[in-house]
């Protein structure tokens, strides 16, 4: 955002098409605010479509059918097909936690602690629904890596928040440590 502001000022001062760049900047800001508004209303954006989503209990619920993916199977024993469920990609995509980055960006832009509190609530729900090393959500190591990257992005964007430092960061560190251990165990398992 600091670089973006600098570029905006540069273009406003030195470029004759200043209104175009200002319009693009305003459009991007409104786009982020619109997305976080939907997330505050329990909706999630997956594959170009908004779905109703229960951030407390819905992490393993198929958004297309309402069927539940098993949560107690060890991840490597999980199948990518379950009776009554649509394509596994919907559950996998939601569990990358991309939605938290959008909320963290909204916090970074507005400094409104409401977004940090929402991140905390969502993470508590996710931890309750998706046990470490269990469920199809932890089947693919690359998806776990994306989740870790998203949690690191959330941490960078929300680091200034005292609420984040006291209540959310410990949860994120715990998740990252468990994921690191799990990914190394899968590496050893698959690579000798």
What does this structure look like?
This protein has 192 residues and is mainly alpha-helical. It has seven helices and two strands. It has helices at 2-14, 18-40, 89-94, 98-110, 113-129, 141-158, 162-191; strands spanning 43-46, 49-52. Helix 2 packs across helix 4 (98-110), helix 4 (98-110) runs antiparallel to helix 5 and helix 6 (141-158) packs antiparallel against helix 7. The radius of gyration is 19 Å and the shape is globular. It starts with a helix and ends with a helix.
Q: Return the string of H and E elements.
A: HHEEHHHHH
Number of helices: 7
The total beta strand count reads 2
Assess the beta-strand content as a share of residues. under 5%
- What share of residues is helical? 55-70%
Tell me the distance between the termini.
44 Å
Please name the defining characteristics of this protein.
single chain, mainly alpha
What's the arrangement of secondary structure elements?
Elements (H helix, E strand, L loop, with lengths): L1 H13 L3 H23 L2 E4 L2 E4 L36 H6 L3 H13 L2 H17 L11 H18 L3 H30 L1
Antiparallel strand pairs: 1-2
Helix pairs in contact: 1-2, 2-4, 4-5, 4-6, 5-7, 6-7
Short description:
The protein is mostly helical. The protein is built from 7 helices and 2 strands; from the N terminus they run ααββααααα.
């Amino acid at each position: 955002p600091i670089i973006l502001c600098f570029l905006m000022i540069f273009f406003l001062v030195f470029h004759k098409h200043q209104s175009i760049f200002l319009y693009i900047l305003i459009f991007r800001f409104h786009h982020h605010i619109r997305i976080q508004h939907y997330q505050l209303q329990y909706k999630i954006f997956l594959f170009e479509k908004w779905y109703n989503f229960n951030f407390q209990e819905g992490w393993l619920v198929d958004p297309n059918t309402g069927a539940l993916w098993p949560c107690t199977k060890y991840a490597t024993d999980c199948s990518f097909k379950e009776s009554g469920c649509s394509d596994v990609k919907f559950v996998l995509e939601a569990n990358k936690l991309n939605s938290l980055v959008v909320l963290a960006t909204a916090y970074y832009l507005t400094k409104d602690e409401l977004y940090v509190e929402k991140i905390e609530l969502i993470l508590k729900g996710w931890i309750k629904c998706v046990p470490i090393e269990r469920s199809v959500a932890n089947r693919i190591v690359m998806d776990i890596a994306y989740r870790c990257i998203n949690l690191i992005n959330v941490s960078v964007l929300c680091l200034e928040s005292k609420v984040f430092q006291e209540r959310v960061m410990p949860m994120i560190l715990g998740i990252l440590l468990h994921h690191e251990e799990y990914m190394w165990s899968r590496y050893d398992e698959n690579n000798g």
